[in-house]
Amino acid sequence: MSHLTGKAAMPAPRSKKAPRMFNGEDEDIAEFLEVYETCTGDAQLPKAEWVKVMFHYLERSQRLIFEAFDGYAAEDWDVFSSSIKEEFGGAVQSKKCTRATLDSFVQTSAAKVIITDTEFRVYHRCFQGTAAYLIKDKQLSEKDAARYFWFGLHPDTQEPLECHLSVIKPDHPHEDPYAISDVYQAGCYVLNSNAFTRAPPLSTPSPEASFLQSQGVGEASRVVKKTVQFPSQQPDSGKGPCLYEYAATTKGLCPCSPGRATCVASGATGLPSASVAAMRLSQCIKLFGDRAP
């Protein structure tokens, strides 16, 4: 499935991924501009469209005000954004980021495993919001930013990305971190939630289920419990020879010998049933073996 770019890839207004709708509050303008620029970068929106598209994220009461800024009519983002920052002045400058801010963000992010491209895009957007400021302020180099971006990922997320990157960039120097743009593209590809490998056919059993079936364990397997009640060992008066008489009769004979089998067969006729006779003989052998009772 192809990845959308341009205006179609921009988050819907008021959605979780979108910049918070700007309502004119001075303290919100710096974050609003940072998040908006990050979204346009993620969507690969042409810079010529940045001015017009931004109006989707403005409250209605602010649209006429922003139309008065320089650069609006010419749709020149650089002039337009500079005019906004000049108008809001101190509110834009008050938001300061430091290396300590980035350190804290990276440490927190590295503790969580990212498993979907949606989560990965959110991580990239949040990281860029801080790193871009530090790079622009000469507090961070592009190479250091790439190193921070990589180590802000959990090792379980790094592993599949590194496998993919090693294939598409086999000559990349081992001592240098991968560029943020390369890692971002790899993450969107490897973690794509729409990949066919994440949606097996319903009729296809999982690897775990296949293994259990190969071992004879499955839904058809059942544990059956039966309770067996043995008859009393007391002799049945008038019903035939008792347990001890069988022991004496079969004394000295091997349990598997024809002679013992003959004695058992002839003695069992007086018992209530052949199954009971066999059961009692088995009990007798267990009790006395080849000894006389």
Figure out the total of helices: 14
Characterize the main sheet: none
Number of strands: 0
- Helix fraction, binned, reads 40-55%
Indicate the structural class. mainly alpha
Let me know the average pLDDT.
77
What would you report as the Rg, rounded to the nearest angstrom? 41 Å
Distance between the termini: 85 Å
Detailed description of the structure:
The protein is mainly alpha-helical. The protein contains 14 helices and no strands. α7 runs antiparallel to α10 and α9 crosses α10. It is elongated and about 110 Å long. 17% of the residues are buried.
List the main descriptive attributes of the protein structure presented here:
single chain, 293 residues, mainly alpha, 14 helices, elongated
Could you outline the blueprint of secondary structure elements for this entry?
Layout: H1 29-42, H2 50-54, H3 60-67, H4 77-88, H5 90-93, H6 99-109, H7 117-136, H8 142-151, H9 155-168, H10 180-190, H11 207-214, H12 243-249, H13 258-267, H14 274-288
